[in-house]
Amino acid sequence: MSEKKIIKTTCKSCHGGCGVLVTVENGTIIHIEGNPDTPTLGTMCSKGLSSIQHINHPDRLKYPLKRTGKRGEGKWQRISWDEALDTIESKMKESIEKYGPSSIAVSQGTGRGYNRYTHRLARSIGTANIITPGYICHSPRLGMYGLVTGYGRLYCDYHGWGGEFPKTQISWAKQLEISSADSEMAVWFLNSLKHVKNLIVIDPRETALSSRATLWLQIRPGTDAALALGMINIIINEGLWDKEFVDNWTYGFDKLKERVQEYTPEKVAEITWLKKEDIIKAARLFAEDTPGCIQVGSSLERQANCGQTVRSIICLLGVTGNIERPGSMMSWIVPDSGLLEEFFQELPLTDEMRKGIVGSETYRMGAARTAHSDSVVKQLVNGDSVVKVWFSVGGQQILHLANTQEVLQAIHNVDFLVHADQFMGPMAEHADILLPAAHWLEMDDIYNMHPRFMIEAINKTVDPPGEAWPDNKIFNEVGRRMAPDLWFENVEKMLDYTVRKANITWKDFSKMGVLAKIGKDQIYYKYKTDYWKKGGGFPAPTGKFEFFSTVLEDMGYDALPYFQEPGESPVSTPELAKEYPLVLSTGYRQPFYFLSQYRNIPWLRSFQKDPVVQIHPDTAKEYGIEDGDWAWIESPRGRIKQKARLFPGIHPKVIMATANCFNPEEPGPLHGLLTSNPNVLTSNDHCDPMFGSPDLTALLCKVYKVE
Amino acid sequence: MEIHEWMINYTRQTEWIDRRGIFLWIAFYAGGLGGGLYLVSLYFNSLWGMFISWLIIAVIKGAAHLIYLGKPLRFWRIVFRPNSSWLARGIIFVLAFVVFAAVQLALSFWLPGTAVEIAFKVLAGMAALAVTVYTGFVLNTVKAVPFWNSTLLPLLFVLCGILGGFGLAVIIGLNGGNVNVAIAETGSRWLLIVNALLIVVYLWAAANRETTGKKSVMEQMRGNLAPVFWVGIVALGIIIPLAIAFSSYFVSEVSSALLVTGVACEVIGGLALRYCVLKAGAYKPLVAIAG
Amino acid sequence: MRWGMAVDLTQCVRCYACVAACRIEHFLPMGMSWPRLVAMETGGDSPTVSTYSVRCNQCQNAPCVEVCPTGATYQREDGIVVIDQDKCVGCRYCIIACPYQNRTFLSKDKDKGFFPGRVETDFEKAGKKLYRHQVGTTEKCNFCVERIDAGLAKGLKPGVDREATPACVNTCPAQALTFGDLDDPNSEISRLIKEKNGFQLHPEYDTDPSVYFIDGKIGYSDEPELRDDSRQEPASAGAER
Ligand SMILES: Nc1nc2c(c(=O)[nH]1)N[C@H]1C(S)=C(S)[C@@H](COP(=O)(O)OP(=O)(O)OC[C@H]3O[C@@H](n4cnc5c(=O)[nH]c(N)nc54)[C@H](O)[C@@H]3O)O[C@H]1N2
Ligand SMILES: Nc1nc2c(c(=O)[nH]1)N[C@H]1C(S)=C(S)[C@@H](COP(=O)(O)OP(=O)(O)OC[C@H]3O[C@@H](n4cnc5c(=O)[nH]c(N)nc54)[C@H](O)[C@@H]3O)O[C@H]1N2
Ligand code: SF4
Ligand code: SF4
Ligand code: SF4
Ligand code: SF4
Ligand code: SF4
Ligand SMILES: [Mo]
User: Fold this and answer.
1) Closest residue by Cα to residue A623 from A575, A655, A658
2) Fewer CB atoms < 10 Å away: N or C end of chain B?
3) Is C237 a member of any domain?
4) CATH at residue B132
5) Which pTM was predicted?
6) Cβ–Cβ of A606/B4 closer than 8 Å?
7) Which ligand sits closest to the CA of B143?
8) Which residue among C59, C92, C141, C208 is best mutated to probe the pocket of ligand 5, counting the most ligand atoms within 8 A of its Cβ?
């Protein structure tokens, strides 16, 4: 008898969030498509759909493995989960005994829906040395929103729930249309474009959106703060600012006004390589055609001046009053389950944990609750590392951190490295214990949308291969051994606990699928109500939206935004620029890959086999490179090769390399990453003073043909 | 080729020449050659010639077609839509020829000179002509490939087939078949000249109709196909046989080895011509690239 | 009734979702792709990134139907051009004849499996039972006739009800694809084509495709003269039909 059922679940093949319908017949998935009865309207992208090839991939890790040869030698022995967990427990306890809990680092890659487990595990062990790519991805934004408004999350209101869609949208260093970055789903954004009057794209590269934009600003990488400040200059000097908002609800406007005077349109045009008229036009459009919103892309956060860049952009939102009004930037009200972050926030950061955070003295914004990854790397290389045991779940620091050669050395110097993954990538290859992780189609879990207005159920559809476990089970089992009081009898109990505030159980939620505050449930203009503060206002120290940040002042940072040249640029290092004349940016997303993932998925690989570097045809000609040639890209740190794509839409002085790549089919342990991954070229020597973010998307390089 | 790097530029047809497609090329040429030889043999009333042409069409062409098909066992289905498909018509012509010519050969062997024999000669002759012609129509009706979409193509293929026929007839004559070698040579000579002119006109017309056709022509004259074009079609297919043919015209007695060489060159030339025509057939880009 | 599709070039973001959706919908063998993306960029003063999501145009005067010697390729009442996989002999004349190159011959090497020589995935095994692809025959986009037929049988409306609408249309996050009846002047697709001046690819071949494109910034024919001709006579859609 054949048994066919349709299971509703949630995709997290990227930052995630699409509602999915999976047809399962006799334990086999025979179809997958979007679920129309969810906020993503039944749309799905190539990555989520290709999960079908992912789950049955012959290279999936199926059993816990123990390293038998030298680190990275590729010699493994299958062990039981018990042995794996026993070993992890004893290594961790030993290290705590000898060096204290901060000697344990817990790491993850980009958000894959289990951040709250990573953080809870670390805190329950007594460490805050959490290694995440947050400081180059999303956290600077959230941190700065938090400082300026007192509330940590601002997202564009694409939804029209308040009766209005954004009239002017700025897509700033972002390809939301294909990245669905931070779970702001492409489908919402694209739908909102049907209502937009002005679309402004700020990007050194042309994109699908720039072609239909009202204005496309082809900016020099790393100079976005200057542009934002220049726009504020124009808006203030032309008297276009939102008087009602600025007069009543903000702090430090006069000081900001003074500060931006040095950013005249002429000067900004020179810094940014833009036309003065375009800067003026952008400023006017954004100030006059309100409401408006700005999608801030993480390319801005992968730069050593990211703190001030993001801050400048928030000030631009402030002067135009694009906060909390329908169609502008919103902080969404969370669903009845409450803020899922409480799952780890309920375990407070102790002073001891804080003190143990690597990099916390230097990078007081970025390393306040998590470690500064590059400092961890430097310490490991120098042999004075606080971190001894590294528990890594689904993230490949070997690939994603700056300066690969150093990172490799660091990884070799870790005393004990545990890694949980689905495949044998470069990070997995270097582990001492390797744990097999399940795919989202193979697990029960709760998906927590980054914009936080909804949570969604991930329902198991098929069994994982071999003995692979869902990440939540891995965390819970390790947690139970390290801090039994703080973890749960089993995953179901943990999930029950997660949704308890909504007065439901996991089983109930699993059937509901989505728990959301959408439409009329959302509250606009919260600062005009008692929502944050009695009598209105923002939850920031002054009770106002702070153009002048009192918190930053207290921390000893500049309380007003400013522009700083990238650490390496034609302006800051003109001598170097003679040898490396082109500006190198790394990291435009491909719609069919997710960071380094999916190059082993045949359907997805068929779209683009080799990593591609975009070069302007004129530039290519100058260096004798033709479309489809392999080209060396060289920086002072090293060189890699990617396939040249002659792209007339990129600035002639900029080249754009594909980030986060290796070739799964090449031999381990590195799978060709030293010749393909742009972090071989990036530097971890100059970092943002607040967040510690290195320059990944604004450097210098030269290119030449691979002979 | 990644799936988006396609139909952006000049995109060659590959199915009917690359890889297994070479069988189609052989089949197409065999049709022209076999049909041409049959017609020439009718003229000389050479039984050997007729028999060999029957073999060429029934065995070589038939086998090549079968090998090429994705589902050879369904071969019989090919005849279902003669109202619109030249391929269906072609195969019907081939079948007709195979049957008529077989009957004719049997009649010529046992009952020569009878009315039935003559009737079958006419029938088989018409089928042979159709076999020679149809491949031209198979290609020329494809609007999508501008290089083929020319009325000159069927004419060229027929002439080229008959030319090959005269060539083979010469060889049959040299080997004692009842073929008048001198007449066959004269036929060859004239046809060579006409053929050469026709090729020039055909290419010239294709190059001047529109851009894709022009690219197809350029591809042969200067691109990847240039060696096949200049060596195969021009040198082996035209110049050498012409030189030999004219030397036999002026120098009354040419060695038969030289004549055989000339014929071999002609055959290679014919093959090269079909090869180039198939290989250079290209589609217009799906959408135009500005600039 | 004549099913058609409109592809809005200003909406498409080159995400490849349509391609993936089709592969799953039809259990496509590894080397097979029914829809494809034609990706183009221009420089100059108004640089443009353009992506044509293309698939079989279901031409009304389909050259592929005309040349097919077996009758395997035929046109249904509703305008969809389909291939009877059991009749196709794999002669590939249709591939040659399609001016849009939207047909693919399924050769052995295109059907080696997702992970050749390693495993046959559960999905592939299921696919062998549910959707038989025959090596040696020619394939192409069929406008998801399976969905349309099953949907119509349930009283659903293709282009409106998801269950009856092609997979690629459903999945497109940009909603760049619109499906519907070209013969119905009130359908969304007829309206779109009319209002936004939808055009067909290579009108000079007189194939009358059922797939229309909207707002192509990068031209649709490389013959400037022809392009101008078709401008004078805007592609007729639903209303006039
Ligand atoms: N399909 C897919 N989706 C993804 C990912 C993926 O790998 N694939 N990755 C996920 C992750 S972890 C993240 S962080 C997000 C990131 O996704 P997004 O934030 O959308 O960003 P990117 O595509 O990395 O880059 C956006 C644009 O920034 C431009 N850019 C580069 N440098 C500069 C600069 O200095 N100034 C300006 N103004 N523009 C610049 C690039 O040209 C690029 O077009 O996407 C997530 N979603
Ligand atoms: N030069 C340069 N460097 C960059 C960037 C850039 O643009 N340019 N982008 C930066 C950014 S924004 C980010 S977020 C980082 C991202 O970097 P990472 O998140 O580290 O990305 P990956 O290298 O893809 O590593 C992810 C690993 O997680 C595994 N994995 C996937 N899903 C799961 C799961 O559910 N469970 C488990 N256990 N494992 C899983 C995958 O198999 C893979 O091995 O890279 C950063 N580095
Ligand atoms: S956008 Fe993200 S969540 Fe949606 S289908 Fe694609 S990978 Fe899955
Ligand atoms: S799914 Fe839509 S947006 Fe994506 S490539 Fe296809 S048509 Fe374009
Ligand atoms: S697009 Fe090609 S395959 Fe489709 S109907 Fe037209 S001619 Fe036939
Ligand atoms: S390959 Fe099949 S469908 Fe195409 S023309 Fe031949 S028989 Fe018809
Ligand atoms: S209409 Fe159906 S068959 Fe055609 S491309 Fe779209 S999904 Fe594939
Ligand atoms: Mo990220």
Assistant:
1) A655
2) N
3) no
4) 1.20.1630.10
5) 0.95
6) no
7) 5
8) C59
